[in-house]
Amino acid sequence: MNLHFEDARKHKKEIRRLFVSAFPRDERPPIALLYLRHRQKRASFRAVMDGEKMVGLVLITGCKQVQTLMFLAIEDDCRGMGYGGKVLEMVKEELKDKHFFLCAEPLDENAENAQERMNRLQFYAHHGMGEIGLTVTEAGVPFTVLTPGTPLTHQQYLDAIMPFFGKLYYRLVIK
Fold first, then answer.
1. Contact, 62 vs 101, CB < 8 A?
2. Are the C-beta atoms of residues 89 and 81 closer than 8 Å to each other?
3. 78, 93, 113, 128: most buried by Cβ count inside 10 Å?
4. What domain count does the chain have?
5. How far is CA 138 from CA 27, 61, 165, in A?
6. What distances in angstroms separate CA 57 from CA 17, 71, 115, one per listed residue?
């Protein structure tokens, strides 16, 4: 494995396909917003590369003190091969001097993707990301907040996502 990050703009076609296939419609903002925030330096939107092959994507955003891994996706044909864990470890290393969190769908045994949610939370727990008892709602979708270290407050969560969403969009989608 020869993993590294590249600017997502170098792989627009593959990034779009993966982004649309990996995230439900109600959980993904317009992809143009991801590129815009990257250009504005309000987010870091990158392709995950193994040598010359794109195997995933990541988007990190936040404020000076608190960062969030807003999106992490691995190509279907690369899942189960250790890429997700390695990428998460790379991100944790990159953000080791900051408060860092991510959001995941909470357990819900009645959800269509209940097993997938459980697997995802187990994956994150295996890689040192723990639930902190904070639930947030983005665009009507509830998420549980996970962090590898010090728990954060709801206000720190809000401060971290504001640069990405912007004031108007933020008011419309965040609860």
1. no
2. no
3. 78
4. 1
5. 8, 15, 11
6. 11, 7, 23
pLDDT at position 87 = 97
Residue 137 has a CB neighbour count (10 Å cut-off) of 11
Q: Which pLDDT score, from 0 to 100, does residue 8 have?
A: 97
Highest mean pLDDT out of 22-31, 38-47, 99-108, 135-144: 38-47
- Specify the pTM: 0.91
Instruction: State the CATH number of the domain containing residue 59.
Output: 3.40.630.30
Tokens of 50: 């193994």
Q: Answer yes or no: is pLDDT of 6 > 90.
A: yes
Q: Print the domain residue range for 112.
A: 3-173
Count the helices and strands in the chain (H runs, E runs): 5, 7
- pLDDT, one tens digit per residue, over 36-70 is 999 999 999 999 999 999 999 999 999 988 999 99
Both tokens of 174, joined, read 């965040």
For residue 62, what are the contacts with CB-CB under 8 A and spacing of at least 6? 68, 98, 160, 161, 163, 164
Structural tokens at position 81: 């091969």
